[in-house]
């Protein structure tokens, strides 16, 4: 991000300090209005109109030019929910990911159905954000610490790249941290005196009110498979897999509790449709799926 862009964003944050909180219903209406605008107000000049598949993975960064720029400005405006505490960025269900650029030059790829809260004091004493969902962080190196807080963990870095998954609505929810490069320190807010440091290629898990697990070496490609449309779950409840597919594609998937609570290990590097992922899940777990009027149904053959 250019210095002028950072300055403009910081000025917007300061001016937004007295803005009133935006209710959830208003946010939903804003997204719906934006989707209608995109579908009806596409510019006729080149480049060609954005197709739905392109829109699903559109990243919210100021890199487009010409006719697409008008659409981008609207997309950038909607996720910025301002209140007295800071700014909230959200990737809605049905959108694969969005890219958030922070004033310090750090970038965050925010997964479907994920929320990133940025403190209004960001950049003063610390660079602090809070994540609910899944995101890949590429943090610019500075002397000032960069802190990611989740419902069960605190991740502290100076400059590095890492993936964090912290979906509090998961069955047996945990925070999982996978390091790509650099170094991170992971602690539990409930037991802050016990910390784990990760090296590239290592990961740790933090359950609520528990200390981080010992670092283990894993497949870095699996940890960030979601960034290319894939899935990676290891001995996870099928419910968590189905919830991820629902968020990513904005579909409904019905399954009985005995299937949802069963565990599965599944890895797919990339996919473009919900049916591709459901097919892999069905083959792996010995299940079947079919379309319904509401979406999909998973069942035992």
How do the SSEs run, as a string of H and E? HHHHEEEEEEEEEEEEEEHEHEHEHEE
The CATH class of the largest domain, by name, is: Mainly Beta
Number of domains: 2
- Under the CATH scheme, the architecture of the largest domain is Sandwich
Number of strands: 19
Mean pLDDT: 79
Q: Main β-sheet: number of strands, strand sense, barrel status?
A: 14 strands, mixed
Overall form: globular
Specify the number of helices. Answer: 8
Beta content comes to 35-45%
Low-confidence stretches: 13-24, 40-79
What structural class do you assign from the helix and strand content? Answer: alpha+beta
Task: Tell me the CATH topology of the largest domain.
Answer: Jelly Rolls
What's the alpha carbon Rg, rounded to whole Å?
20 Å
Helix content: 25-40%
Distance between the termini: 53 Å
